């Protein structure tokens, strides 16, 4: 009888505690959607604020500099005194030089690493090599910049006669090394998602492991691979410190890659360090260049999303 009363009493206490906990859980359940909405709203608000700031300040720049002179001009000389010119094409060409060299380095190496990790490496080796490869993505870009200036450039000067201390080749190679983990990791994820039945079928038909990797797995994972390449291009276009330290500050509208160049991001860094006063045309020019850079990266990101949806294979 006593045990029954004790059990009943214990049961009532447990019910009271459960009711209290349930009330607390209900409060949490009601608050969490509002809290999550607030964080999402703040993120969107910050993004909209950045875009509108770029747009407003860019309009102020174009009130002073004709739009077509900026877009089609082949001379970028904002500090030339009485007759400054603001043709953005030399900055765009400098950016494309570095990006092109970076992709020549990153795409073959990244795809080779992805093929090895996906098709040849054992599970133990993959778990070891992939995190080590991704450590490259965590290295500060300022370190990459000094690496390009103090190691890669002197090494290239031994190989390429007449190579200037500031050039497009050295930062291009190092930017390629920097984005290599992005291409390798995303491509490996895409290749690993290809069903093993496709590999086994190809091997059963007499294909070699390399033929399976290049003729079966690679085409099947094409959407993820192309998306990783486009995202790599987007990151290379927006790279700042490497090109600022190793590329130079001489915007040129030519095809030379052994001379000093200047990219869009390097110009923004130059002006932001105090070379122009607030409210001057040079000051507003960094917003125009920043908006141009924003358009480039936005196009790259939209292209990556389009490629992923267009060429995606469903298994």
Description of the molecule:
With 315 residues, the protein is mainly α. It folds into two domains: 14-64; 76-310, MetI-like fold (Orthogonal Bundle). Helices cover 77% and strands 1% of the residues. It has helices at residues 2-64, 67-72, 89-120, 123-135, 141-159, 169-192, 196-204, 209-220, 222-237, 241-246, 264-275, 281-310, and strands spanning 76-77, 85-86. A two-stranded antiparallel ribbon has the order 1-2. Strand 1 and strand 2 form a beta hairpin. Helix 11 (264-275) packs antiparallel against helix 12. It is globular, with a radius of gyration of 27 Å. Residues 5-9 have low confidence and may be disordered.
Core attributes:
315 residues, mainly alpha, 2 domains, globular, transmembrane, MetI-like_sf, transmembrane helix, Phosphate transport system permease protein, membrane
- The fold-level CATH name of the largest domain is MetI-like fold
Low-pLDDT residue intervals, each spanning 5 or more residues: 5-9
Q: Note the overall shape.
A: globular
Structural class: mainly alpha
Helix and strand element order: HHEEHHHHHHHHHH
Do you know the CATH architecture of the largest domain? Answer: Orthogonal Bundle
User: What percent of residues are in strands?
Assistant: under 5%
Give the termini distance in whole angstroms: 64 Å
User: Quick check: average pLDDT?
Assistant: 83
| Cα gyration radius (Å) | 27 Å
The name of the CATH superfamily of the largest domain reads MetI-like
Membrane topology: Multi-pass membrane protein
Transmembrane segments: 35-56, 88-114, 135-156, 168-191, 212-233, 282-307
InterPro entries: MetI-like (IPR000515), MetI-like_sf (IPR035906), Phosphate_PstC (IPR011864)
Family: Belongs to the binding-protein-dependent transport system permease family. CysTW subfamily.
């Amino acid at each position: 009888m006593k045990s029954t009363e004790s059990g009943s009493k214990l049961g009532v206490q447990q019910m009271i505690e459960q009711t209290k906990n349930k009330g607390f859980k209900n409060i949490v359940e009601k608050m969490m959607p509002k809290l999550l909405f607030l964080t999402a709203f703040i993120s969107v608000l910050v993004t909209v604020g950045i875009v509108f700031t770029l747009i407003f300040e860019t309009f102020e720049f174009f009130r002073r500099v004709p739009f077509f002179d900026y877009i089609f001009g082949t001379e970028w000389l904002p500090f030339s005194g009485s007759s400054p010119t603001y043709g953005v094409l030399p900055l765009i060409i400098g950016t494309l030089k570095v990006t092109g060299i970076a992709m020549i380095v990153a795409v073959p190496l990244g795809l080779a690493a992805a093929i090895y990790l996906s098709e040849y490496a054992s599970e133990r080796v993959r778990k070891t090599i992939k995190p080590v490869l991704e450590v490259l993505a965590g290295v500060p870009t300022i370190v990459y910049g000094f690496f390009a200036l103090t190691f890669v450039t002197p090494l290239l000067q031994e190989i390429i006669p007449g190579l200037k201390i500031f050039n497009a080749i050295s930062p291009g190679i190092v930017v390629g090394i920097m984005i290599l983990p992005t291409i390798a990791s995303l491509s490996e994820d895409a290749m690993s998602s290809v069903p093993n039945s496709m590999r086994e079928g190809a091997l059963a038909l007499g294909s070699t492991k390399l033929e399976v990797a290049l003729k079966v797995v690679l085409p099947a994972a094409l959407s993820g691979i192309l998306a990783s390449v486009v995202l790599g291009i987007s990151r290379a276009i927006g790279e700042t410190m490497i090109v600022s330290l190793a590329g130079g500050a001489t915007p040129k509208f030519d095809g030379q890659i052994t001379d000093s160049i200047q990219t869009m991001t390097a110009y923004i860094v130059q002006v932001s360090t105090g070379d122009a006063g607030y409210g001057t045309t040079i000051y507003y020019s960094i917003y125009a260049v920043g908006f141009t850079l924003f358009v480039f990266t936005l196009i790259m990101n939209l292209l990556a999303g389009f490629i992923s949806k267009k060429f995606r294979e469903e298994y």
